[in-house]
């Protein structure tokens, strides 16, 4: 497909001249030569002005800016970003050397909204960038791409509100996101950039749909959906909150509609079993297991009774995971949307049931099944016979049972199920205990017993079933055998997972490659040669109000002909959901410009699976489940070579806004301490500026009234709270490297963290210390000298040991994605290096390479100043040497004129000169050694250092 990236300018534009340095000619892109600057580096940029007064004002502003900046990031970062782009430094060739190991690291690609990035977004992106840069330096072929999940409801709603075409909005948002990401120095291969809205991309989304259709995995069915009249579309369950649409807060109804469905349930067992082999957080795997919800049980038939109490020729099938408790079933529950409900309702109860069904239609499945929700229901007016006990039991309608799970009906056993018990108590339905603990204990608190045990009260001569005294597992097997032999039921495996509702009544989405013949209504899949089916240009995106999608308004597009028979036909006017494009984008990154197939087989075989996938936990179920499903279908038809798409998954935490402090006032206007709020009664909350707050022990209090304790809380960043931090502002004030480093230093990648301006200032000062350590302090003019202050001298043992311990620690922490502790190790190195008399170049260079994945702009600049003409992006990552990692330090006693004066820490193999140097630098010992002339030194390696000084002559009085 056509790349969205800006074309690279000619390489010759990088040839510049810098004073006092020879011109280094840039050759091919593969050599990745460094740019030559045109002037010495300044702390801040100069701006010319003809107005002397304006110049003075500018000079003053520059001086103030210089004081705030720890190093000249505003010159360094744009230059290296320009260099990387002009030289395609991070481009992964289409044909890589497959003898080298590969590393495919992927971000969950963003939806490009008009708001742009906030500082929470770069958290995961920085982590993947560190890993990418690290692996490149280790000799891996690295695939590190970026793209846009750009179809969907937000752009369409914006189009409706403003009259702007979604494509215009989407492209504008993409431009902004791309610009922001590039300003942070991420090493993406922008030549592989994709957008789900490009026809060259969604051609293959449509192709995948056709493969699903051919294999019976895509079908149409009349199903209850979340219909939002105001938005004119079907919403997913997670898009509905408290009966309202998440976007806009519009009422949502449950109504049956003919929809496209994908048969994900056919892959339920494989989706479940293959989780075991994945390196994913256990919590995420458990969430997927619960979503799939495999259970073993029985399907039992209950005969519906007429008003005369006799069996009618109607059966109600229920699914239960506890057939052992069948004698405890004292009522049945059918879902409000059960297909047979109308025939079950008695005439006196019909109006009540219809009103209840209407109310239930306004709730999402999530709301209906929430455990904490108060149970509601209505009696149907009918009864059924319990086939085991022979008793007549009532049939209720209740929304805590879903029509989409099992048979849409359950046998309720209130003595041994929490939801059934709550419902039975509320509506005075009998409770019959049929399971008792083995030890005979039983609580008398009126709570249901949910554990294992022995069966009681479970025998009936007429039904021929007696399971008294059996343990639950054996009793369940007996009940299933009895049901199958008597025709009352059968063994059944069930899933909570439902087939995937795969249609939206929207314009801004992928069109279905399907038409319907006008004369017969027959559905016809378009041939692959007709792909892509592109969206028509449409000016009116508003809902039709009839349930028809907006695409129905594109009459000339809707009316078409069957390419095979030439018969008049009508196009499908629903579009695919936003999930479609994000299900397989990781494959297209492997081969983004292939017009002949979805992905080249050899390229897919080399790059699959994704080695590390990083994104938010909010996508842990649906996106990942859908992508795994599509991948398995593609595996079955030979398109991909692996069973799973993402081998390792990491969920980064979220970055919360800065801590907000709140005080409370009573109704009389007096301040109330936060620890007294619960007992005061009426009060209101007000925010307190941070400058009026101080810490007192474990609490925050008012500076001018420490008796008033405050609450301190950080909230998720949102425009409504006004606590969003724009990364553009942070980069402008502190630089991209500071932002990158701070987000990694805030805490473990997987944890949520609170933004702190003082925290980023601290990291910025650290980078300034690194800069001054290696480059030196600025001249009085604000300029920095060329090169560095490093020297071509051999490092001593202690310097080598500090370096290699830093190398070992940083390497270990990058491998473990513990980036915060890796940064701490580099801080410790810097602190130690400031105490040295000299800075050997052979120590500085490895340290700069260690720093480069974290702060790439500064590292590239330092590498260039150290005399290198090529980017460090492909330099070998330093390796720690074992001889410097061994803990061979000993405590060496030091005597002065035979008298013990202190100890020093030295290496076991320390020479006499080295031991004396360390002693002379010791604060306590130096006051003895510096004052007098040294007469002799006595050194016993590993035992003692004795310094003999000339005695001072004491004059006569």
UniProtKB/TrEMBL annotation:
Its EC number is 6.1.1.4. Pfam families: Anticodon_1, tRNA-synt_1, tRNA-synt_1_2, tRNA-synt_1g. InterPro entries: aa-tRNA-synth_I_CS, aa-tRNA-synth_Ia, Leu-tRNA-ligase, Leu_tRNA-synth_edit, M/V/L/I-tRNA-synth_anticd-bd, Methionyl/Leucyl_tRNA_Synth, Rossmann-like_a/b/a_fold, tRNAsynth_Ia_anticodon-bd. Residues 289-463 form the Leucyl-tRNA synthetase editing domain. Residues 800-906 form the Methionyl/Valyl/Leucyl/Isoleucyl-tRNA synthetase anticodon-binding domain. Residues 108-240 form the Methionyl/Leucyl tRNA synthetase domain. It is an enzyme of class 6 (ligase). It catalyses: tRNA(Leu) + L-leucine + ATP = L-leucyl-tRNA(Leu) + AMP + diphosphate. Keywords: Aminoacyl-tRNA synthetase, ATP-binding, Ligase, Nucleotide-binding, Protein biosynthesis. Residues 58-67 have a biased composition (Low complexity). Residues 48-57 have a biased composition (Basic and acidic residues). Residues 712-744 form the Aminoacyl-tRNA synthetase class Ia domain. It comes from the Eukaryota. The keyword Zinc-finger does not apply. GO terms for biological process: leucyl-tRNA aminoacylation; post-embryonic development; reproductive structure development. Residues 38-72 are annotated as: Disordered. GO terms for molecular function: aminoacyl-tRNA deacylase activity; ATP binding; leucine-tRNA ligase activity. One of its GO terms (cellular component) is mitochondrion. PROSITE patterns: AA_TRNA_LIGASE_I (PS00178). SUPFAM superfamilies: Anticodon-binding domain of a subclass of class I aminoacyl-tRNA synthetases, Nucleotidylyl transferase, ValRS/IleRS/LeuRS editing domain. The keyword Ion transport does not apply. Belongs to the class-I aminoacyl-tRNA synthetase family. HAMAP family: Leu_tRNA_synth_B. This is leucine--tRNA ligase. It comes from Acorus calamus. The lineage of its organism: Eukaryota, Viridiplantae, Streptophyta, Embryophyta, Tracheophyta.
């Amino acid at each position: 497909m056509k790349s969205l990236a800006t074309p690279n300018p000619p390489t010759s534009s990088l040839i510049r001249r810098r004073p006092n340095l020879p011109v280094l000619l840039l050759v091919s892109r593969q050599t990745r030569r460094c740019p030559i600057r045109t002037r010495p580096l300044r702390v801040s940029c100069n701006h010319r002005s003809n107005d002397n007064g304006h110049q003075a004002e500018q000079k003053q502003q520059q001086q103030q800016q210089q004081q705030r900046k720890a190093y000249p990031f505003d010159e360094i970062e744009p230059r290296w970003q320009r260099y990387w782009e002009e030289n395609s430094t991070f481009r992964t060739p289409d044909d890589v050397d497959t003898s080298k190991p590969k590393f495919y690291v992927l971000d969950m690609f963003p939806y490009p909204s008009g708001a742009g990035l906030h500082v929470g977004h770069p958290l995961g992106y920085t982590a993947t960038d560190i890993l990418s840069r690290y692996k490149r330096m280790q000799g891996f072929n690295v695939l590190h791409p970026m793209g846009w999940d750009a179809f969907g409801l937000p752009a369409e709603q914006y189009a409706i509100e403003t009259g702007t075409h979604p494509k215009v909005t989407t492209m504008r948002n993409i431009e902004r996101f791309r610009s922001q990401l590039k300003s942070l120095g991420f090493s993406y291969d922008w030549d592989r950039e994709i957008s789900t809205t490009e026809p060259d991309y969604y051609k293959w989304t449509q192709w995948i749909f056709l493969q699903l259709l051919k294999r019976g995995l895509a079908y149409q069915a009349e199903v209850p959906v979340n219909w939002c009249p105001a938005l004119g579309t079907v919403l997913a369950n997670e898009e509905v909150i408290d009966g309202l649409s998440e976007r806009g807060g519009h009422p949502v109804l449950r109504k049956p509609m003919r929809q496209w469905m994908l048969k994900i349930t056919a892959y339920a067992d494989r989706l479940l079993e293959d989780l075991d082999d994945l390196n994913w957080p256990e919590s995420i795997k458990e969430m997927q297991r619960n979503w799939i919800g495999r259970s073993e049980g029985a399907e039992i038939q209950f005969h519906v009774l007429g008003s005369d109490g006799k069996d009618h020729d109607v059966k109600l099938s229920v699914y239960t995971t506890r057939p052992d408790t069948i004698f405890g079933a004292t009522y049945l529950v059918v879902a409000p949307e059960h297909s047979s409900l109308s025939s079950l309702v008695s005439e006196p109860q019909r109006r009540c049931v219809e009103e209840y069904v209407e109310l239930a239609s306004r709730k999402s499945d999530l709301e209906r099944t929430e455990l904490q929700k108060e149970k509601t229901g209505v009696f149907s007016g009918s009864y059924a016979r319990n086939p085991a006990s022979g008793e007549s039991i009532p049939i209720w309608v209740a929304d805590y049972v879903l029509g989409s799970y099992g048979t849409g009906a359950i046998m309720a056993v209130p003595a041994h199920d929490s939801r059934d018990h709550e419902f039975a108590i509320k509506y005075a339905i009998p409770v019959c205990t049929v399971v008792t603990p083995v030890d005979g204990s039983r609580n008398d608190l009126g709570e249901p017993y949910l554990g294992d045990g022995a069966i009681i009260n479970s025998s009936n001569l007429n039904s021929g079933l007696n399971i008294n005294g059996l343990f639950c597992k054996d009793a369940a097997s007996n009940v299933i055998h009895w049901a199958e032999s008597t025709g009352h039921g059968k063994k059944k495996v069930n899933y909570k997972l439902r087939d995937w509702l795969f249609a939206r009544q929207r314009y801004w989405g992928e069109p279905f490659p399907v038409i319907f013949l006008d004369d017969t209504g027959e559905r016809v899949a378009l041939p692959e040669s007709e792909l892509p089916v592109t969206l028509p240009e449409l000016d009116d995106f508003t809902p039709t109000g009839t349930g028809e999608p907006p695409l129905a308004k594109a009459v000339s597009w809707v009316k078409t002909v069957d390419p095979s028979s030439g018969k008049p036909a009508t196009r499908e006017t629903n579009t695919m959901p936003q999930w479609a494009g994000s299900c397989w984008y990781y494959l297209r990154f492997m081969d983004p410009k292939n017009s002949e197939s979805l992905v080249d087989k050899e390229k897919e075989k080399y790059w699959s699976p994704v080695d590390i996938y990083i994104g938010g936990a909010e996508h842990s179920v649906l996106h990942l489940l859908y992508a795994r499903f599509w991948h398995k279908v593609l595996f079955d038809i030979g398109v991909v070579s692996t069973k799973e798409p993402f081998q390792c998954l990491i969920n980064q935490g979220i970055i919360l806004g800065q801590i907000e402090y709140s005080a409370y006032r009573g109704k009389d206007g007096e301040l109330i301490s936060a620890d007294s709020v619960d007992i005061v009664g009426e009060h209101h909350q007000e925010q307190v500026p941070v400058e009026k707050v101080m810490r007192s022990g474990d609490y925050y209090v008012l500076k001018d009234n420490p008796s008033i304790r405050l609450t301190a809380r950080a909230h998720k960043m949102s425009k409504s709270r006004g606590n969003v931090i724009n990364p553009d502002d942070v980069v402008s004030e502190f630089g991209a490297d500071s932002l990158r480093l701070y987000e990694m230093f805030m805490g473990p990648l997987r944890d949520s963290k609170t933004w702190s301006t003082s925290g980023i200032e601290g990291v910025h000062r650290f980078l300034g210390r690194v800069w001054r350590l290696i480059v030196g302090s600025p001249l009085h003019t604000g300029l920095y000298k060329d090169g560095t202050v490093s020297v071509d001298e051999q490092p001593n043992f202690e310097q080598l040991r500090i370096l290699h311990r830093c190398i070992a620690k940083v390497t270990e922490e990058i491998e473990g994605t513990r980036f915060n502790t890796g940064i701490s190790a580099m801080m410790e190195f810097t602190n130690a290096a400031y105490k040295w008399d000299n800075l050997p170049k052979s120590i500085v260079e490895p340290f700069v390479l260690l720093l480069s994945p974290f702060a790439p702009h500064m590292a590239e600049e330092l590498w260039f100043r150290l005399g290198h003409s090529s980017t460090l992006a492909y330099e070998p990552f330093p390796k720690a040497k074992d001889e410097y990692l061994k803990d061979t330090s000993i405590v060496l006693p030091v005597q002065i004129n035979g008298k013990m004066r202190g100890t020093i820490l030295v290496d076991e193999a320390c020479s006499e000169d080295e031991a004396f140097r360390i002693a002379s630098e010791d604060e306590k010992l130096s006051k003895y050694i510096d004052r007098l002339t040294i007469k002799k030194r006595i050194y016993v390696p590993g035992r003692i250092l004795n310094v003999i000084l000339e005695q001072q002559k004491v004059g006569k009085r």
